[in-house]
Amino acid sequence: MSNPLSPSQASRLRRGLSPERLGPYERACGDDIVSAIALYEWNGAVSAGFHEDLGVLEVVLRNALHDQLTAWHLHRHSASEWWDDPAGILEARGHQDVVDAGFRIRRDGRIITPGRVVAELTFGFWRYLLSRRYETSLWTPVLRHAFPGLRPARRATVYDPVNRLVRLRNRIAHHEPIHNRPLERMHADLLRVAGYLDSDVRAWIQERSRVPRLLLSRPVTEVPVPREPAESSARPR
Questions:
Q1: pLDDT tens for residues 154-213?
Q2: Percent of the chain at pLDDT exceeding 90
Q3: Residue 17 CB partners (closer than 8 Å, separation 6+)
Q4: N or C, which end of the chain has less CB nearby within 10 Å?
Q5: 71 lies in some domain
Q6: Spatial separation of the C-alpha atoms in residues 8 and 193, rounded to whole Å
Q7: Considering its fold, how many domains does the chain have in total?
Q8: pTM of the predicted model, to two decimals?
C-alpha cells in the first residue's frame, strides 16, 4: 500500500472520486476521509486479487460444464451443439443468452465456434445452469459429473458458493465496494469449488493467490458484514 495521504490530498481526491462513491468508505471509517481513501485503495487491491482467482475458476468451471454437456448431447444426438438440443434443455432466458452470445461474436466479425460461444457466455449463465430449475433435467444426469471432488454430489453444495462468487465478481466488475463482504469466507468458497472441479486447479490457485496476503493488510475499520441471501427460485440478475 502507498504512504498515507495528507488531509488536503484526501479532500482533493474525494472531489475527483465523488462523495457518493466514497460514501460507503467514509461511513466505514467514521467519516475520516484519510482512512476512507486508504480503505478505497485497499478495496481496489483486494478486488484485483479476487479478479485473478475468479478468472481461473470461471474458465475451468465453464469448460468442465461444457465438456459434460457436449458428451451427453453427442450420446443423444449425432449433430449440432448441446445448446441447440431439439428437446429444449435450456429455458427461454438461457436460450436467449446463447443467441445474444452468437450475435456478439458475429458483430465482431468472427466465426461462431463452440469455444467462442463458451467464452462469450457469462459467469452468471453457467451459475444459472446449476440452479434448482435444472436439478432434474441437467444436474442429475449430466452436470454433477463435472465435479468429481464433490461427495455427496448435492447440487446446492456447488450452487450456493458459485452464486455468492458471481455476485462478488459483478461487484468487482462495476468497481463497487467489497470491503464489507465476508471475503475470507468467499475465498474459501472459491477454493472449495475449485477443489470440487479439480484438486490440481485448487492447489494452483491457492499457491499463486494474492488474496490471503491482501486480507492481512486490510486497514483497521469497523465494517458491518451483511448476510448473504439464501438460494431463490427466481433467476438472479
A1: 999 999 999 999 999 999 999 999 999 999 999 999 999 999 999 999 999 999 999 999
A2: 75
A3: 40
A4: C
A5: yes
A6: 45
A7: 1
A8: 0.87
Cell of 124: 452468471
The three three-digit cell numbers of residue 156, written as one number: 446446492
- Whether pLDDT at 85 is above 50: yes
Burial class for 77, CB neighbours closer than 10 Å (0-12, 13-18, 19+): middle
Given a contact cutoff of 8 angstroms between Cβ atoms, the answer to whether 144 and 155 are in contact is yes
Model confidence pLDDT, tens digit, residues 18-32: 999 999 999 999 999
Residue 222 resides in a domain: no
58 lies in a domain? yes
Residue with cell 438461457: 94
pLDDT, residue 5, reads 78
92: its cell numbers? 427461454
Residue 47: other Cβ atoms inside 10 A: 22
Q: Would you say residue 2 lies in a domain?
A: no
Nearest-CA neighbor of 186 among 170, 172, 168? 168
37: how many CB neighbours lie within 10 A of its CB? Answer: 24
What type of residue sits at position 113? T
**One-letter amino acid of 2:** S
Residue 159's domain spans which residues?
7-216
What's the rounded Cα separation, in Å, for the pair 193 and 218?
Answer: 25
Highest mean pLDDT among 5-19, 36-50, 75-89: 36-50
